[in-house]
Amino acid sequence: MRIAWLRDHPWHVDALAAAHVEAFGALIPDWTVQQAVQELRSHTRARAIPTTLLALDEAGDWLGSVSLLQEDHQRIRQYSPWLASLYVRPQARGRGVGAALVARCVAEAAALGVRRLHLYCTAALAGYYAVLGWREHAQVALGPLQVQVMAIECAETV
What is the CATH number of the domain that holds 59? Predict the structure, then answer.
């Protein structure tokens, strides 16, 4: 597995956008695949915010992705920047792909001078991120879901 910038592999955008909307659409009910495509296509720079990283297998097919964003949800703008949209394809789960993507995203944020990075997740996933060094920061209601905002100090991870 290797991790690369989505901007260098744009042929994966459509499939990735569809997977993101399916996985995260409950948090943004009016979000469409076309909007997700536009967002991902706007991630044109490496080592910048916003950007998206892909985990790729030996054949170049995508296994998962993670984004580094300035804002992840309009109702929680007070926290920034964000690790967002961590997604690992079902056939690649349990192989460390997600942990590798999270570690790389945190390292990229640290290289950009970010001191604290945030993410939000459901309570069911908070334990996963805690094992990776994230700590609980706040609880927030986003529509019908109660989510946990978590944070990590980037300087501690590099």
Answer: 3.40.630.30
| pLDDT tens digits along 80-115 | 798 999 999 999 999 999 999 999 999 999 999 999
Tens digits of residue pLDDT in 7-58: 999 999 999 999 999 998 877 778 899 999 999 999 999 899 999 999 999 9
Residue (of 90, 75, 158) closest to 120 by Cα position: 75
Distance in angstroms between the alpha carbons of the first and the last residue of the chain: 21
Tokens 């920034």 found at: 80
As for how many domains the chain has, the answer is 1
Element at 118 (helix H, strand E): strand 116-121
Residue with tokens 């590099």: 158
**Containing domain of residue 128, as a range?**
2-156
User: What are the distances in angstroms from CA 34 to CA 90, 99, 156?
Assistant: 23, 28, 37
Q: Positive or negative CA dihedral for 15, 17, 22, 24? A: positive
* Whether this model's pTM surpasses 0.85: yes
Contact 100, 84 (CB under 8 A): no
